Amino acid sequence: MASSNxxxxxxxxxxxxxxxxxxxxxxxxxxxxxxxxxxxxxxxLLDFVRSTNNRNEKILDFHHPEEMxxxxxxSIPDQGLxxxxxIHDCATTLKYQVKTGHPRFFNQLSxxxxxxxxxxxxxxxxxxxxxxxxEIAPVFILMENVVMTHMREIIGPNWKKGDSILxxxxxxxxxxxxxxxxxxxxPNYKEKGxxxxxxxxxxxxxxxxxxxxxxxASVCGLGTDNCLMVPSDIYGRMIPSELERLxxxxxxxxxxxxxxxxxxxxxxxxxxxxxxxxxxxxxxxGLWLHVDAAxxxxxxxxxxxxxxxxxxxxxxxxxxxxxxxxxxALLQCSTIHFKEDGLLMSCxxxxxxxxxxxxxxxDIRYDTGDKVIQCGRHNDIFKLWLQWRAKGDEGFEKxxxxxxxxxxYMVKKIKEQPDKFHLIMEPELVNVSFWYIPTRxxxxxxxxxxxxxxxxxxxxxxxRMMQSGTLMVxxxxxxxxxxxxxxxxxxxxVTEQDVDFLLSEMDRLGHDL
Length: 513
Ligand SMILES: *Cc1c(COP(=O)(O)O)cnc(C)c1O
Hints:
Blueprint: H1 31-52, H2 65-71, H3 83-95, E1 105-106, H4 115-127, H5 138-155, E2 163-167, H6 170-185, H7 189-192, E3 201-206, H8 211-219, E4 227-230, H9 240-252, E5 256-263, H10 275-285, E6 288-293, H11 303-306, E7 318-321, E8 334-338, H12 343-348, H13 381-416, E9 421-423, E10 431-436, H14 448-468, E11 472-478, E12 481-488, H15 496-510
Parallel strand pairs: 1-11, 3-4, 3-5, 5-6, 6-7
Antiparallel strand pairs: 2-8, 7-8, 9-10, 10-12, 11-12
Helix pairs in contact: 1-3, 4-13, 5-13, 6-8, 9-10, 13-15
The structure holds pyridoxal-5'-phosphate (PLP).
């Protein structure tokens, strides 16, 4: 299959020279040409889908930015280009794009190319509506309502009456939790501002949590010094007694603790903070409990893996859950859920009278746009709804169990080759943390000095992966250790053979380092 050869995508002679003003919506008589053009675009897309799923194709064709600027014509012309040129532009764009759905792409928490979700995104783009009012998105608004209620019911039976919204990413979902918590404790803040809070607000999150939690403190006027990083144990889980110690310490200084973020699935290690113990502390001191399950939330769908990881989640006040991570929905798809209904609206409503008129034809409770701090909102629900229709709860459960099973397989394979790989810890999620050991270090006993050496090799081996285009695995340091690899299995395309390939390819590329 010749996939990325852009010269293949010839429009027929009658339309190749046409420009955008020769087709719809300008020329009704050229409906045929419009369809020809779109079909050609779809052909380009389908070839990308095919090559994404073809293990003989590379994951990426890497070029440095200066080189890429020479290879690719990024310029904005004075005069518009032909339809044929636009088709070539589409093909060339995808030629240099990293195939995040390739079965050997293990680099990111969001990967895989779910075909149903993609079809949904295509429809969404075609419908091109805004999600603020029922008036212009009746079907999508009702879908959002149904899927959000379903997700809350999965969080806990006592959540059915709560409220939820789709946000542009987990970071913003976490921000919504912060805003609602502050609004709940200081309802006058919205109108009167910072002066209504007599004292220093402080929030708590683990030192392994996502940086967006700390960013709330900076964005919302607390200052990052007032986002306390609670120490975690060697598995990366928040230590509840440390949380309590820090709360007491800050209370004794006259500060106002109000918000605790408990991470369910940390970004690097995939650790789950103990929700029940943290909930007890929040209850004791009257603090809002937010669970950031942006990453681990998918496991709520699995009877086998939900407990003990997410046990107690129903005791939270708010939960962030990103379907665009474990569940494989296309980017972006992130949700924030609240146990209490009404908070989002009372916290964020601005009642713009040109959008949210109170005297509309229909029940204005369906105008969700005033619950958010954006105005226009992208339709992220259709692709998730369609995907859930396709899979059912059962299909999603199987998908979660499969990802975890593949992770267990990888751990087993790593342990079978202790000369070549050093497993850092038993994972709780699909994050596998390990070092690759090249030949020269295989006989050296493991020690902090060897860890430093192995850490230095990570960027070199990663560079070789990118240059060869055959594999992508991420690495990073953390506060306990130098660079190490963090492998993510979050794509339905991955099989046991791909895991075998991953390990042997790392060895092929790195044995002489
Ligand atoms: C990915 C992630 C986020 C941020 O989500 P975005 O959609 O990338 O903004 C927040 N928290 C955790 C634990 C994450 O893994």
